[in-house]
Amino acid sequence: MKAAPFDYVRARDAAHAVELLTAAEGFVKIIAGGQSLGPMLNLRLVEPDRLVDVRTCPDLRGCRDEGETIVYGAAVTHSEIEDGAVPDPCHGWLAAAARRIAYRAVRNRGTLGGSIAHADPAADWLVVLLLLGAEVVVLGPGGMRTATLAEFVTGPFSTALDTGEVLAAIRIARRSDRVRYGYRKMAMKVGEFATAFCVALDDPERGESRAVLGAIERPPITVDDLPNVSDTAGAEAFVSACVPGLDAPAVRLHAVTLRRAVRDLECPGLQV
Ligand SMILES: Cc1cc2nc3c(=O)[nH]c(=O)nc-3n(C[C@H](O)[C@H](O)[C@H](O)COP(=O)(O)OP(=O)(O)OC[C@H]3O[C@@H](n4cnc5c(N)ncnc54)[C@H](O)[C@@H]3O)c2cc1C
Q1: Nearest to 243, CA basis, from 264, 263, 214
Q2: φ/ψ (deg, to 5) at 173
Q3: Which CATH number is 61-173 given?
Q4: Which CATH superfamily includes the segment(s) 180-264?
């Protein structure tokens, strides 16, 4: 199938995108890398009257090092993070996580902001950035606002973006090199979306230790205070309690990813 006809405009910057979103009549949609929206257009799951392209907006393409935090423009691509073209607040762990998204052609075009705005519950960035306690910066007709990623993602494929708003940036706090990470992504094939996903973190300086479970039919679940998952039965009971209604094979799969991600924290070096 081919996409239904639509009008196409390239925004000059984020403010221009907001203007274009609010000025036009009909159904207007932002496009960034097109790696999720493209297939949806072709399948006619969405039929916008107009696309506003933000991929080349200079203010969405940049990255600002604020010392304690790094602020990524929403149109920074997965491969720019993978390649170290922008700073990594996690001493290489963010780059390693980027490398596990799909395959290079997708990573060359797919953007951080597009992935977050799409809010696929199995998406890598959603799970990874929730673990890191990221914040989002949103620009709309009323100005700029900030929210935690946890507040921003309201459900599977659903966010708190209002009409006329553009996701402008993602802010991630710098972590020390003493932080340990756990990372377990189960997929049917390399480059596919996860069927079970768990990341974990132990940050002695900030006193944080938590895990995030993803690839479930709801927004990823953040577990503060890591559970004791030394045995399979305990891990399965924990997953069942977190996600009621999962069938037994799914519980087993998520429990295995949780156990392995938590156990990764005991190993030195980057876990991805
Ligand atoms: C074959 C294939 C395999 C993939 N595998 C994975 C995978 O393993 N893991 C993974 O995480 N992802 C995967 N993806 C998805 C990929 O990471 C996409 O890049 C990402 O989900 C969307 O980013 P995008 O820039 O392409 O956004 P687009 O497709 O352009 O847009 C997606 C949605 O976000 C909105 N949007 C985009 N930018 C903004 C913005 N700045 N402000 C407000 N709204 C915005 C659009 O309106 C649209 O609704 C895969 C994609 C493909 C095609």
Answers
A1: 214
A2: -75, 145
A3: 3.30.465.10
A4: CO dehydrogenase flavoprotein, C-terminal domain (3.30.390.50)
Q: Where in the chain is the domain with CATH 3.30.43?
A: 7-52
**Closest residue (by CA) to atom 10 of ligand 1?**
123
Q: Which residues of 101-119 are buried (b: 16+ CB within 10 A; e: fewer)?
A: bbeeebbebbbbbbbbbbb
In angstroms, what is the C-alpha Rg of the chain? Answer: 19
Q: Is 117 in the pocket of ligand 1 (CB under 6 A)?
A: yes
CA distances (Å), origin 242, targets 131, 156, 179, 223? 16, 16, 25, 9
Residue 193 CA: nearest ligand 1 atom is 8
Local confidence pLDDT in tens for the 272 residues of the chain: 789 999 999 999 999 999 999 987 899 999 999 999 999 999 999 999 999 999 999 999 999 999 999 999 999 999 999 999 999 999 999 999 999 999 999 999 999 999 999 999 889 999 999 999 999 999 999 999 999 999 999 999 999 999 999 999 999 999 999 999 999 999 888 778 899 999 999 999 999 999 999 998 888 999 988 888 888 898 999 999 988 889 999 999 999 999 999 999 987 665 56
Ligand 1 atom nearest to 124, measured from its CA: 11
Pocket flag, ligand 1, residue 101 (CB < 6 Å): yes
| Ranges in the chain annotated CATH 3.30.465.10 | 61-173
Q: Which CATH architecture has domain 7-52?
A: 2-Layer Sandwich (3.30)
Tell me where in the chain the CATH 3.30.390.50 domain(s) lie.
180-264
